[in-house]
Amino acid sequence: MQDQTFQNRPVTMNEHNNLLQIEEHMYILDDVKKPNVFRNMFPYDEVPKIPFNDRIVPHNMPKDIWITDTTFRDGQQSRAPYSTEQIVKIYDMMHELGGPNGMIRASEFFLYSKKDRDAVYKCMERGYKFPEVTSWIRASKEDFKLVKEIGMKETGILVSCSDYHIFLKLKMTRKQALEHYLSVIRDCLDEGIACRCHLEDITRADIYGFVVPFCVELMKLREEYGIPIKVRACDTMGYGVNFSGAVIPRSVQGIIYALNTNAGVPSELIEWHGHNDFYKAVTNSTTAWLYGCSGVNASLFGIGERTGNTPLEAMIFEYAQLKGTLNGMNTQVITDLARYYEKELGYHIPPQTPFVGKNFNVTRAGIHADGLLKNEEIYNIFDTDKFLGRPPVSAVSNTSGLAGIAHWINVHYRLKGDNAIGKEHKLVQVLKEWVDGEYENGRVTVMYDEELTKKIDEVSKLIGIEVCEGEIKNLSE
What we know:
By secondary structure, the protein is of the alpha/beta class.
């Protein structure tokens, strides 16, 4: 019967390339007796290996791509829990950040504590279409009761898919795991609740022996119930790579191709969830978009387990670079969120963090400062003042030179056009002498904003000027 099924696969016309093709959605569960942990790729006592077979899949970026958020779920597993009020505040800002077109499509929440459930209710009361409030549960009928009680429209379900989890953690066979997962998913669908299946540890899973056959069954349930079933590919350990021709299960494009083409999961129902263990969270997430995945799951500032998740703010600028537009996203809110985390939550963002770190667009080299003074495009990635409310800055140190000091004054006091000062200005010359003296006497740290402004006030009075925001006043006039 199985042979006959494969012989009778329908031949259809592919409307995209106008070629005849054979239906590929014929993958059978490989119910192995022993776990396949891909020891050849993941020798625990060696660094993991990245093998290649040079099988190439085509670019297939969907017309519409978007971001989903896990700040309150995966992002909350690695830090002190947020208060209900903090969650609602961040959720409000995320709504503003995503813009009127809902580029941050959904945000997922825990349901286990009263605090988490209170936050869910308060965020739902906001009435925002985006980000949609969704939940996350284990593949457990007890957990499902929480979803049902709250009245969620969609929930994520943890469906671990590697043999590391199926055999070694759950103590099941592949068939037992598949049947258990499907039973919980049916319970959700029976209640009219949409499911988002979190395929945990997909980059160590048997893609064609378990993942694709399981997703084929999910698509059958989707057709039977007429309810969307999303598939989230979770690179739980950060093993995914975006190299052309790399072998699955490490190949991001190979995984997305298998889900989309072989399992028949539409692009709009596929999400990528990355971790940064090998510094690849952002590139892997972008690769997932490029090869047929509509949704990329991320957390604010990459906060998440171990090395963290894909940073949400990074994917906003990846989107803009790929699509040539922000599609309504308000990127100034990124800076507001960073300030909120540092001032209200006491969270320290590493200073070199792109887009949000204190020093991300600060230069200390005098030669760079000279370039900024002449034209900021020379050493600034884009108009950071326009998009993030943060103009490029020159830190003042022993290497800043006259140009660095002049640029710092212009930025700090917003002196532009004819009001901007140059290296030849008396204020700059006197400050340079003072700075040089500080370092000649053994100073090793950069100048702090407060001491610079204090010194500027002192020197300004001596030379008969007052430095104000936007202009320099001559006190003798």
